[in-house]
Amino acid sequence: MARSMKNPIETLFLAHPRAVSETYFQHMRFALWISSQLLLAAGAAIIHSLVPRFCEKTASKRIRDLYDLVNPR
Fold this sequence. Notes:
The chain is mainly α and 73 residues long. The protein contains three helices and no strands.
């Protein structure tokens, strides 16, 4: 007895972007932008680890801002 299989393209690439009202490419652009912001926050955290006086709140503020942006989605 064969189980019905969903279209793998739909499952892997389209279902989630559609769930957040975006096309695949809109979702890719947004995810890449979020990734770049997290990399910048990581850089600030590394600088802070080396010189605690620098970037005291940069990483945590950036992460909070990103959370506020992504959470409603």
